[in-house]
């Protein structure tokens, strides 16, 4: 494993620890101090103070909780739902598969974050609705991936043998198909976590996500852009936080993908 | 070729019908009564009944659905609740700005990605290659709502080269295009590298070199056109991310396109306008992807079925 990958894993570990513990140690980061409006970063306060005089540093740490937990739940829901539907479509084939693929195509025809924006808009802001909006968008990629992978392994000999022996369908999928298609799904899930963190911050940036006063990186960057002319530091702190975790996850995803491909190549040579 | 085109157009039409149906049902997802959400709780009963009738929400669902789609075919989305203008007029006035932004972003992405991708494919695992890899990793990891403000801080507030926002000066488009094009550039440069590397190991490249052709000629006339094919598909697919990202980018730079119109409509609870914007952006994406497929089939004779 490369040293950069290890460093990135450490960064991710730190953010996870912060996400778990920060609210218990430093509270909600909402204490207002009107004497410190827009105070710039200094030795005493590393990231400065915002438009309500709140210390930005602690708010970044508390904001990690929202980002990480939404990313975790959205990706977990997407992987489980998407993979299940994907394996079902790929395994079943026929008319159901054709209709299913069309439905996937329709969801994929909404560009990028647009469907999530529209959903968040009609559902109204709030953590649960962000969760719903991003999951509705997220499962599709996993369903398509799992379907394609299932198609490529379902005619292998060991699956055929299992069928001939009368193994129940659920068990075939769980023991004979899922392990074979897990690697690309895990890689995809890693990148999905980074993408969901960005998407959640994007929704909060547009005012459709987590609502004030709960600290969230996207909302903090949005506040920062409002005061860009007088207090550019308001956007920089949360921006750095977001950037560090997304960059780390993408790097880990890259090396995970390379690692799994190398392994696959090694098996092909046998 | 003809049958492929017909087949792709039918597929695109089916997908568009699905997109418009989902978008149509979005309004019915509004928790509680959409009329109450739009007008506020204090609105009187007569106003509510009037809006309900205007939006056709008192009709049976299927009837609403057919009416919605009949309007769609005539490019008639009804009237904006906020400005009372026809939605089609609003969209026509905003659409050129978004198309312009998308074009410039694509151009910016290509200007950055082509040299990076080609250089790193010609010298794999060199310093140039790892520099390009780092740049592209940064490019995909910096979200546009962060890159935008950063560019404003450096180039507008610091150096004073470009306007902070708006669309009044010709130079206004530089920062939005760079913001929107950065992540596309990151993905494209890696795709160009991978695709070109693969092509460079083909026998016809070795043969061309063996015939004594100059390396530069082989790369430009033999390798690049063949490497362009998979890149073309990626551009088509990534245009979706570009159009979605345009919503955020237009908000950062106060760029008066469809994306800004969407968010304004959301803030004013102008749901018919939101629906129309989502449909227009998605239809544009579906159309571009269909065209990409058809162009691909035309330039690559192996796909002609």
Write up what this structure looks like.
The complex is a heterodimer of chains A (270) and B (305). In chain A, 76% of the residues lie in helices and 0% in strands. By secondary structure, chain A is mostly helical. Chain A is elongated and about 75 Å long. Residues 262-270 of chain A have low confidence and may be disordered. Chain B is mostly helical and 305 residues long. Chain B has helices at 2-26, 34-39, 45-55, 61-73, 87-122, 127-141, 144-158, 174-200, 203-210, 215-252, 258-267, 271-299. In chain B, helix 5 (87-122) runs antiparallel to helix 6 (127-141), helix 5 (87-122) crosses helix 8 and helix 5 runs antiparallel to helix 10. Chain B is globular, with a radius of gyration of 24 Å. At the A-B interface, helix 3, helix 4, helix 7, helix 8 and helix 9 of A face helix 1, helix 6, helix 7, helix 10 and helix 11 of B.
The secondary-structure element order of chain A is HHHHHHHHH
Quaternary form: heterodimer
Profile the largest sheet of chain A. none
Head-to-tail CA distance between termini of chain A: 24 Å
Give the DSSP E fraction of chain B (strand runs of 2 or more residues). Answer: under 5%
| Helical run tally of chain B | 12
State the helix count of chain A. 9
